[in-house]
Amino acid sequence: LELEADLRLALDRGELKLHYQPTIDMNDSRVIGFEALVRWQHPTRGLINPLDFIPIAEATGLIVPLGRWVLTEACRQAVEWAERDNSRPIKMAVNVSVRQFDRSDLPTVVREVLTETGMPADQLCLEMTESVLMTDTEENLAQLVRLKALGVTLAIDDFGTGYSSLAYLRRFPVDTLKIDRSFVERLGEQSDDAALASTIVQLGQSLGMSTVAEGIEEYGQLAALRDMGCTFAQGFYFSRPVPAGEAGRLLLQGA
Ligand code: G
Ligand code: G
Ligand code: MN
Ligand code: NA
């Protein structure tokens, strides 16, 4: 409860900040963009992980202003990098909560943020979990269609851990599947996870969607996923989520 009161103030006080984790092209190991991940620099408790405050934000409705702040800051940063480094347009992925679909105004918010920041729509990717497809399906589908019409791309996060049916996947205008890191974790060991990861990559290919492997920590996982045909990668093997200054340097290095 105390945290809830603090979170109300945190936005105004500028206590939230974004870290950025690079997304890598598996074929040439270049940075093609970043995922923005929110952090809360609490005045007395220190750095608070999103897992400890996003659920509070979702339950209280604070996710709406918080989500708008994240979108705005991530787009502002992407535009700043593009102006500095204008030969390389980068993708910026932002996580959106299913609760941000509740008011039916997410497409309006995104359109306003794109205009305010000058962010090209095709450089913004919205990541959402399968719950967006499985609750208020028709209403959320209508919003996803409006988002696609703006030109932004859509990704399903933590894919394979939820409960979406393949029929749903075909109906939704999704561009990218992010393979949950639980499948990546045990790739080398005796398990079914290699078969599952490979199946997700093939599913993406047959539906015309790109695939991003999350949570790559070792070279062997990278090699295995690349051999499966997965195109993009994220994980501590390349970089942890880092503050903007460090992310900007990764971009210049192209590493
Ligand atoms: O950055 P980290 O791995 O600690 O993130 C933990 C979880 O918090 C992840 O599931 C991530 O998707 C989620 N998360 C991080 N930033 C945001 C955000 O800006 N909005 C929402 N809705 N979730 C976020
Ligand atoms: O749910 P989502 O995919 O948005 O979660 C992103 C979270 O995953 C971030 O909190 C980030 O810190 C974490 N993460 C990113 N790469 C790795 C990795 O290689 N290993 C582990 N254990 N966590 C990772
Ligand atoms: Mn994500
Ligand atoms: Na994920």
UniProtKB/TrEMBL annotation:
Domain of life: Bacteria
Source organism (scientific name): Actinoplanes friuliensis DSM 7358
Name under which the protein is recorded: Putative diguanylate cyclase/phosphodiesterase with PAS sensor
Domain named EAL: residues: 1-255
Residue runs in coiled coils: none
